[in-house]
Amino acid sequence: MLIRVMLAAAVSLAVASAPAPIEGRWDLIVDTPEGPRPSWFEVRHSGFSTLVGQFVGIVGSARPVARVQWENGSFRFSIPPQWEREAKDWTVEGRLNGETLAGTMTRPDGGTMRFTGKRAPTLRRAAAPVWGAPVKLLNTDLTGWRAIQGENQWRVTNGVLQNMKGGGNLVTERTFTDFKLHAEVRFPKAGNSGVYLRGRYEVQVEDSPGPEPAVDGLAAVYGFITPNQFVNRGPDTWHSYDVTLVGRTVTVVVDGKTVISLQEIPGPTGGALDSNEGAPGPIMLQGDHGPVEYRNIVITPAK
Predict the structure, then answer these.
(1) Res. 7: pLDDT tops 90
(2) Quick check: helix, strand or coil at residue 24?
(3) Which residues, in sequence order, are bridge partners of residue 205?
(4) Beta-bridge mates of residue 162
């Protein structure tokens, strides 16, 4: 009798703990009035049967999802507002069809947007990269770059790339897969910018107040990975960034200090260019928040 009870309990536990088909990471495309925009969410198990996760909207940082409702191929979850001014929750609901999703997002202002999604790639590499030759991305002008998503406020003066005021973001014409990136950046008091790796993953550039590192502060992978120490030496000072990206694995060194070491980036951050994570992408410099300066931008791509 005892053996039967134990077997029944083991079977019950196995059934309760079996992954739901919705579990995993999902790259989304959202239909907005301004055109398609990227989004992302992740679903994972918590305990016997509860599904939890995190969500990244078109803008903002990753938001925790306390519960994902899942039944008969349909899912639904709600999250409180973040940068939205309305008090109501975001609601996301849809259906899983094989390895694709389709559904609707309802914003706090009551507006709705359709979305589709597919499973995010793991981006695990079978071998370590072999690095090619370094390439200077910044010369005497904006050759090799273009401004997007706003008016161009960028110019190059004496080898320094300057964003004069809030305007468009700046992206490279060339795209990259795995790479090592060096850049030096200077921001004013309360300045805010960011370097988007493949145009999808923002490494934060900001005059963070400190004294502790933050998931949305200087050198963080915005909303996802907190640096292991506070490294802001203050505004109007040149900071050096050395970032290595291989698949999803990132290492960030600021002013010679390794603040993120071989950490996995779960998915695109808010403000990403797209959610096609398996494709090469450009380097994007955020310019919509205000003045910032960059110099000595050099990339070493994998062969």
Answers:
(1) no
(2) strand
(3) 193
(4) 155, 293
Report the distance separating Cα 78 and Cα 137, nearest Å. 42
Helix (H, G, I), strand (E, B) or coil at 297: strand
* Cα distance between residue 173 and residue 77, in whole Å: 38
Which amino acid, one-letter code, is at 227? Answer: P
Return the residue matching tokens 């921001």: 187
Contact by Cβ (8 Å): 209, 216:
no
Please name every residue paired with 97 in a beta bridge, in sequence order, or none if there are none: 100
Amino acid type, 109: D
The average pLDDT across 104-118 equals 95
Rounded average pLDDT over 92-106? 96
How many Å is the Cα radius of gyration of the chain? 21
Looking at the predicted structure, is the pLDDT value of residue 194 above 70? yes
With cut-offs at 50, 70 and 90, classify the pLDDT of residue 178.
Answer: very high
How does DSSP assign 185-248, residue by residue? EE--TT-EEEEEETTTEEEEEE----SS--TTSTT-BTTTB--SS-----TTS-EEEEEEEETT
Q: pLDDT grade, residue 16 (50/70/90)?
A: low
Within a 10 A sphere around the Cβ of 138, how many other Cβ atoms? Answer: 20
Q: Are 45 and 17 in contact (CB under 8 A)?
A: yes
At 4 the pLDDT is 53
Instruction: Set out the domains of the chain in order of their start, with CATH numbers.
Output: 15-119 (2.40.128.120), 135-301 (2.60.120.560)
Sheet holding 90-97, edge to edge: 63-65, 50-56, 35-46, 24-32, 112-119, 100-106, 90-97, 74-79, 69-71
Contact present, 256 and 181 (Cβ < 8 Å): no
Decide if 202 contacts 245 (C-beta within 8 A): no
Q: What is the pLDDT of residues 131-171, one digit of tens each?
A: 999 999 999 999 999 999 999 999 999 999 999 999 999 99
Chain centre to alpha carbon of residue 143: 27
Q: What is the pLDDT of residues 242-270, one digit of tens each?
A: 999 999 999 999 999 999 999 999 999 99
